Amino acid sequence: MDSWKKTGIRYRLLSVFTAVFLILNYCVTPIMAFGEEQSSDFERIAGSDRFETAVNISQEGWTSSETVILAAGMDENLVDSLTAGPLAKLYDAPILLTAGSSLPSKTEDELKRLGVKKAYITSGTSVISENVLNSVKALGIEIVNLGGKDRFETAVNIAQQFNNTRQIFVTTAYSNADALSVASIAANKESPILLVSKSSLPANVSTYLDTIKEDISNTYVIGGEGVISDTVMDFFPNAERVYGSDRYATNIEVLKKFKTTFNYGKVYIA
């Protein structure tokens, strides 16, 4: 830790389940979440669980917000939160987490505190139930449901909110790490993230791609052939692969590729 302090760089440290919320805020608000020991260099923003941690991050970044992104907090559905990263930047909105069957009381209280009028839901009703949606509606909040029948369609629904499709990012749908590595960059550029399988292009992604192909100047495929094959990559115009030998190396290569995107005075660690 001493060597880190000597660099003068301030680090933000948070759990992998809530890392997306901090990286989304890169261009929105200066939020500091640091290591375990409290000092001039390190501070932690955390809660008793992932739902409360998301609330605490929201409270650090927003005194009020008419718009929020409400995402599923379950491990198997976190990729929807990551593809929603650029959406949160687009609307200058915090991301709050919900359980699938009920709205956590901490999240409900934060919706009230923020004075939310509109909530973008980033999973389908098979993930975020009607019970949750009804709880949100009962607060007088308009629901905009971007959830699809699967994670691929959800990512497409989110992408359709963007006017800028000159640059798109493509990651595997079945591991959060690569989407996490690029979420802050896609958010900064206000460009969508699309999800694919390793060896096939989902039909709903293919249909959407046909509508934007002419506009795309750059496609960035994040990850090696072990997660996205060349066959799938070839469907995308002007595609370039950014990857390393594993998820950590891929993360480093992403940072190198987009090094001019960031001010490295602040670093987020997940």
SSE layout:
Blueprint: H1 2-7, E1 10-13, H2 19-24, H3 50-61, E2 67-72, H4 78-83, H5 85-90, E3 95-98, H6 105-114, E4 118-121, H7 130-137, E5 142-145, H8 151-159, E6 167-172, H9 176-189, E7 193-196, H10 203-212, E8 218-222, H11 230-233, E9 239-242, H12 247-257, E10 266-269
Characteristic terms for this protein:
10 strands, alpha/beta, four-stranded parallel sheet, 270 residues, 12 helices, 17% strand
What can you see in these coordinates?
By secondary structure, the chain is an alpha/beta fold. The chain is built from twelve helices and ten strands. 38% of the residues lie in helices and 17% in strands. A four-stranded parallel sheet has the order 3-2-4-5. α9 runs parallel beside α12. It is globular. The N terminus is likely disordered.
Concise summary:
Helix content is about 40%, strand content about 15%. By secondary structure, it is α/β, with parallel strands linked by helices.
N-to-C CA distance: 16 Å
Structure classification: alpha/beta
Apparent shape:
globular
Number of strands: 10
Radius of gyration: 18 Å
| Order of helical and strand elements | HEHHEHHEHEHEHEHEHEHEHE
Mean pLDDT: 85
Strand residues, percent: 15-25%
